[in-house]
Write a structure and sequence with these properties.
alpha/beta; Rossmann fold; five-stranded parallel β-sheet
Length: 330
């Protein structure tokens, strides 16, 4: 089907207001696809609507085959900030910028990290069950504890980690920060204690909250050895990416009493398999990769994504939102 319009393929999670921003342009045609489409299903959509000038993706993977089918892609945009599902080397070869939503969902992820800490410390699920199951008399056997004066180790001091640290500080926690890519003075000037030895810091923490990207360097960062260095009374919270924690090692530590509990928003395999043994443990709080997905965050991320795409079409990409900035410099 011949068209002079630039086709933009967007996941159904993009809000109407953001789609309207794109559709206000006479030269843009917006085409929605099902959020969880991937593999052959997604490639069929791309082939049907090619040429595709831009993609606005949720968790959908994109690489050589999809880009070949799209033919004339100018930009790939994530309605979010993670990009482990995107083949960046392939984009680089083609000179296509990958853009993310900046700080749009960072307050939401930071709040979810705090929520998981709170639920674990205050034994939210267990105490709720005592009331609904008429087990009130057992309450003194499930006494919760305070976050006040506990030590939290925040891993990653970027958009989300900085906000998580700020919220922990407001709860009067002792905040340690590990980020080998940030100057110690930047962390110290924010009011937190920088740590350079991760293993030593892990042994000090009552809570660990992960906020680093998934990369070859961070995959398996929390393996059996590192989890084994944590206090038996400590809690591990991950709202970053699945695979940073070795799930079998985490399960073994939780079952063996070497770790008090965990809050997990992201899993190595998603959607998580129903027989994943972590789901059977009472000291694990989970959510379905929703830390950055709130009503407000979806609106902010969607609008940021629309602006990202338009900036490329207009020849002036929003540089701070481009992951592979080298393609802009060629």
């Amino acid at each position: 089907m011949a068209t002079n319009k630039k086709r933009v393929l967007v996941t159904e999670s993009m809000t109407k207001a953001a789609r309207d921003v794109l559709e206000e342009r006479d030269n843009i045609e917006v085409i929605r696809f099902t959020h969880l489409f991937t593999g052959d299903d997604f490639r069929a959509v791309v082939k049907e609507h090619a040429p595709v000038a831009a993609f606005a993706l949720g968790a959908t993977r994109i690489s050589t085959e999809e880009l070949d089918l799209a033919r004339e892609t100018e930009v790939v945009a994530r309605i979010g900030v993670g990009f482990d599902a995107i083949d960046i080397p392939e984009l680089n070869k083609r000179g296509i910028p990958l853009m993310v939503a900046g700080t749009a969902n960072s307050p939401s992820v930071a709040e979810q990290a705090i929520f998981l800490m709170m639920m674990l410390a205050k034994r939210g699920a267990e105490l709720h069950a005592l009331v609904t199951e008429n087990r009130w008399g057992e309450r003194l056997g499930m006494v919760p504890f305070d976050l006040y004066e506990k030590t939290v180790l925040v891993i990653g001091f970027g958009r989300i980690g900085t906000r998580t640290a700020r919220r922990c500080d407001a709860l009067e926690m002792n905040v340690l920060v590990y980020d080998p890519y940030k100057p110690e003075e930047e962390i110290r000037s924010a009011g937190y204690e920088p740590v350079s030895d991760l293993d030593a810091a892990v042994a000090r923490a009552d809570f660990i909250s992960i906020h680093c990207p998934k990369s070859p360097e961070t995959v398996g960062m929390f393996d059996a050895a590192r989890i084994g260095r944590m206090k038996s009374t400590a809690y591990l919270v991950n709202t970053a990416r699945g695979g940073i924690i070795d799930e079998p090692a985490l399960h073994a530590a939780l079952v063996g009493g070497q770790l008090a509990g965990a809050g997990i928003d992201v899993f190595a395999s998603e959607p998580v398999e129903p027989d994943n043994p972590l789901l059977k443990l009472p000291n694990v709080m989970t959510s379905p990769h929703m830390a950055g997905v709130t009503q407000e965050a979806l609106e902010r991320m969607s609008m940021a994504t629309a602006r990202n795409i338009l900036s490329v079409f207009d020849g002036d990409p929003i540089r701070e939102n481009v992951i592979n900035k080298e393609v802009l410099d060629k």
